[in-house]
């Protein structure tokens, strides 16, 4: 019998924000795959769940490089997928751990598609998205009553950001660090800069919260950052 | 010493999707408040976590009526808040359980504000939003790469739904049951009806998934429903 493939959302970083079901499956599967970005760098995802896994000998690190080089990316993906498929063919169940929620900006979805297409049984366990943890930490509701909420990847300069900022109520701008001055300018153009809160490394020891994003405009912003913007709420 | 107030997100319904931290706090606090909509109706939230709470004698049900009558609502809220504040004043810690994530369409936020304003220490534990669980169940990613995601409360006919549907990439339409024909018509006007999947009672035994929303247009839709709509993905 072929093994089953699990995608396991492990939440934003706090080991306590892993679900009971994720812990169960981590201990039930034969193999746990933990991604790392570089050989020897270690896996952030594994660090989060290590206290929840009884038998660490079943953990395999796989390298998913952080690069814009499509060929290098593709090569490592194919290799990782082949290793997973080999495990599944030999009857072993495999759990792939992924930060946050597997259905929100996760590269897991590409693995899932390929493995489903090969006819294997799969199951995805949702996880806490980083923006939920950030909102709880700040005590700022993401959305109330009849308000809408737009999750926008700020690392890309897409055409429709202006339209969304003009018509939406509340916003999460994910990964604004790539060109933070541009993001702040965009918010200013929409009169929303004073509604924005910047949170970096939420839940980590060196977490930072900044209410004056204009003052941060030309500072170095951590990659693990997001902006929460509520039209009906200002910092003043 | 005054007690601490915890808001505890317990996720969409599956007891397995409660976090490790939520379980810890449920067992650490002196009092657990579980909302019910009517006296004797029981608390859905309590049903989800009951297996995680060792001492059920600390659970108190509070009635939060589902009504559009603002006076009746206000009266029950004040009464509930006063009871919580009394516990906190007497040094008891209180955990308030809330479905999904506490910062997404939750009435907990009003309690939190009032209790914070009275100077009590508070902490909010995020939970899995219902739309994350639905997306995992369907195997449909909510957002990939440079796509954005708009969470829209479909029970309200706000002005900006059309603008969002015109400019966003992916959508979750929450609670579309109030006027489902209108919601389907709106999607059709934006050429998105064939991109929509309707999921009702996700994770419950009588869960339903419908890929042809036009066929469902005039059917009775369960209150616990949502539509997931991806511009780049059709059912055909």
Describe the structure concisely.
The structure is a homodimer of 236-residue chains. Chain A is α/β, with parallel strands linked by helices and 236 residues long.
Keywords:
five-stranded parallel beta sheet, homodimer, five-stranded mixed beta sheet, alpha/beta, 236 residues, 32% helix
Structure write-up:
- The structure is a homodimer of 236-residue chains.
- In chain A, the strands form two sheets. Chain A has a five-stranded parallel beta sheet, with helices on both faces. A five-stranded mixed beta sheet of chain A has the order 6-7-10-8-9, sandwiched between helices.
- In chain A, helix 2 links the parallel strand 2 and strand 3.
- The first copy, chain A, has 236 residues and is an alpha/beta fold.
- Chain A has helices at residues 20-28, 44-49, 70-89, 108-117, 130-138, 161-167, 180-189, 213-216, and strands spanning 5-9, 31-36, 59-63, 94-98, 122-125, 149-153, 170-174, 196-200, 208-210, 225-230.
- Chain A is built from eight helices and ten strands.
- At the A-B interface, helix 1, helix 4, strand 5, helix 5 and strand 6 of A face helix 1, helix 4, strand 5, helix 5 and strand 6 of B.
- Strand 6 (149-153) of chain A pairs antiparallel with strand 6 of chain B, so a sheet runs across the interface.
